[in-house]
Design a protein that fits this description.
alpha/beta; Rossmann fold; Immunoglobulin-like; Purple Acid Phosphatase, chain A, domain 2; six-stranded mixed β-sheet; five-stranded parallel β-sheet; 24% helix; elongated
Amino acid sequence: MKRLILTLLSTAAAVTLAAQPDSLDYRGDYYFSKRSQQESLPVRPHHTVMLGNSLTERGAWAEYFPEAHVINRGIGGDCVAGMAARLDSIVAGRPRAIFLMAGVNDLIFSTIAPEALLRQYERLLDRIAAESPATQVFIQSPLPLDEARNEPYFTGKNARIEAFDRLLRRMAARRGLKFIDIRSRMLRDGKLPAEYTVDGIHLTPAGYAVWVEALRPYVTSAGARIGTVTCAGRGLAGVVVSDGDNCAATDSAGRFVLPANDRARFVFVSTPAGYASPSEEGVVRHYLPAKSDGSSHDFRLRRKPSGETRHGFVVVADPQLFARKEFRLLERAAEDIRQTAAAAERSGRPMHGICAGDITSGDHTFYTSYNEVMSATGIEFRNAMGNHDMKLWGRSHETSAAAFEAMYGPAYYSYNVGEVHYAVLNDNYYIGRDWYYIGYLEERQLAWLERDLSFVPAGTTVVVALHIPTAFAGKDEKPFDYAQAERSLCNHRALHRLLEPYDAHIVSGHMHTTTNCPVRAGLYEHNVAALSGAWWQGAICTDGTPAGYAVFEVDGGEVSWYYKSVGHPRSFQLKIYDSKDDEAFAGRIVANVWNCDPAWTVEMRADGGRPVWMERTTAVDPQARRLYADASKLDHKWITVTQSDHYYAAPLPAGTRRVEVTARDRFGNTYRAEKRINR
């Protein structure tokens, strides 16, 4: 029986006493064979390592914890010194965690004192801390024996194991390490029960089941990211926190745990309604770098001074700064936004801002200056990433957000204001060379959005901000038009399906023109014209939309909106043309009503006569044609005018001297413009 026990313990290698009383001979053939086999499979940072002797070796740890990337580094007959000898190959891989089960063989098969064994154990821990400081170490209690079997090697050994157990507990507490008490779970009447052991020391499936359940919360949380969300020192419950893949809500004390995730670059909070994340130098700091050393990610929010069920937001798209000289134009636009926001806030409607991407035209050193200028608006801006915000020439899409994330944090995230949930996405998919990209949301981002929205009740108003529009030209391309791959979101149906339970609005940019698209009931896309006009070459975009921004007013879950042209009053919503402006308009009056949608109505009166309905049509803006016809006068020779469908036309009666056009939006607001007809 003694021989059987020794064989099982070493799983083929006879364990002999070392020449010195405080160590075992771990240098047998089995040890080296098994060690060589294990070291041929390198440890990686996402691994959790089970380090121990035959008790560990016989555990099917990868099967017990299939999601935890567990590798088994148990070797039968091994002792603390033997584990230290093979530690190099383990710590070199910087594993996520090491679960240490050591000391039983030393205590049973040598005369080493528990105190001396503890010193060996601590030297092993010192090496882990020095060579792989981010690795979490879990100390497992040594398991008991069944001394009732009357094996001479067992007699009196439970007392030694118990003494060492006490030393380990105190040492773990002193070092701040987690001590996992498996021993007391297995003890019954001071011994290891027969149903848990096959030979008095090695475990049956029932014994391993006890061990596995004791380890489960620690293995599944090994490498997990923890933290708190507080306001004025008090924990906030129900706040959603994410690492870009996983989402979790804080408990009643404001604490959260996110599963281990090697892909995470940030941990970020979905700022709850009524609270604000800190802002620093024009950037909302709703995020922290993801830590892998087990330290806490702590978010400290502040309470907003007033309610925000009634609030608003502005959307700017494509500032797209090419040169320093353009910053004075940006400053003019920022002052216009400041005045709009200040007026709204005086009426009890707090405002914030969203930039729908293309902050610069590729010179990311402009970010700091851009932030400084936009801070002068007096409102907080959240930013989406545009294709010109990509870092080019990386080897894959995954490298393209580096410059944006270095300044603004995660390229996709969410937050809440009043009764509205906001999600910001990155739909610029870099294809690995030059500046080429397509509009695409990869599975990781869609899966994150699905998890994020799982915390949002159906029927909630949701606003999604991204750069490349999802409903280009107000319709699906059938068959798919590859020429539109960089101008529209190729897999937009996946996004639209995720938004089906909600009253959703999508705000986008990229086109430098205006398109409003009711996609279906409960889903509306606002493709906002460029704040830069035609890339700062003129005060209007290539479709005739004045340089400006969209303004949204939110009351509960109801959303209304208008377009605000820089340097013009809110009432400036249309412009009238006739044949003197463009020969193509002969016999007609044509109005450019840039922010229209199918719910708008437009009518004309000639010389104060009866109103005549104007029909929606497509056209090219004559002013844009004049401004951008001569490429030699432009910094960017590729600028051309854009035909669009936000025009309305009606026949012009002969002899008319004056026309008045009245446009009425979907909310009942009316806008008027007049034009004198020169013959």
